[in-house]
Amino acid sequence: MTDHVLVERPDAYPGVQLIRFNRPEKKNAITRQMYARMTEALTAAGTDPAIRAMAFLGTEGCFSAGNDMADFLAFAMGGSMGGEVLDFLRALAGATKPIVSGVDGLAIGIGTTIHLHCDLTVSSARSVFKTPFVDLALVPEAASSLIAPRIMGHQRAFALLAAGEPLDAAGAREAGLIWKIVEETAVEEETLSAAARLAKKPPEALRIARDLIRGDRSDVLARIEEEAKHFAAQLKSAEARAAFEAFMRR
Ligand code: COA
């Protein structure tokens, strides 16, 4: 298992499981192994009564630059996609415990869309949220094509997901993608303490409240599958391959 994803239960924040991207030399780009590790952690948290809230964090100045481009290119060249990404998205969308995320800096691709499945997202003012799917000849994923228009309206969702326009932290808060903006140095503490406060609440009441607020998730899970079919087909396209090769050549 890779240490590019660290899974911890910090003593200072009882009841919280932290999943931390830890590949700063590659801007926390997420490989298949990293997805697998996160799925394992989410799945274990679902059945462990000692874990009452989950948290996602990146490293200083970078949440994640999204899916690993080398993995994209390997698939575009005919390799196997594997089930790691889809398994992760299913586990994330189906999670039954509250999720808090903390962003400082870059949040690209799934580094942005992951927050649509989080219940509270804390961000520094310098963070930038961006999904260049179409520029890479890809399509939105993680049911973002369904959830984003619901929370931010068609125009802002289109600007983010189809036009690839970046959202700064203030714009992300205004659009309802994130909860609050704090000092860079406070992102971790605010994220983990928000998760710890949730972990202290009566778990069954919190679970029901979260389910009611999130609503029925069958449409979200179905959209993940629908997007994934298009995503896989586009990954094999000549235009996507050219975009990945251009990135790898830089
Ligand atoms: N996959 C694989 N490696 C990545 C990566 C990704 N998604 N994003 C960054 N990296 C790597 C770079 O290749 C570089 O590696 P190297 O030092 O071995 O050459 C390292 O991380 C640092 O990135 P670099 O591009 O030099 O940093 P930057 O600050 O100039 O730019 C980004 C940062 C994130 C803006 C830029 O790397 C980028 O656009 N990445 C791709 C993001 C993306 O499109 N993700 C997929 C979304 S669907």
Automatic annotation (TrEMBL):
One of its GO terms (molecular function) is enoyl-CoA hydratase activity. It holds the Pfam family ECH_1. Gene3D superfamilies: 2-enoyl-CoA Hydratase, Chain A, domain 1. It comes from Rhizobium meliloti (strain 1021). This is Enoyl-CoA hydratase. It comes from the Bacteria. Keywords: Isomerase, Lyase, Peroxisome. InterPro entries: ClpP/crotonase-like_dom_sf, ECH/Chromodomain_protein, Enoyl-CoA_hydra/iso. Its EC number is 4.2.1.17. It is found in: Peroxisome.
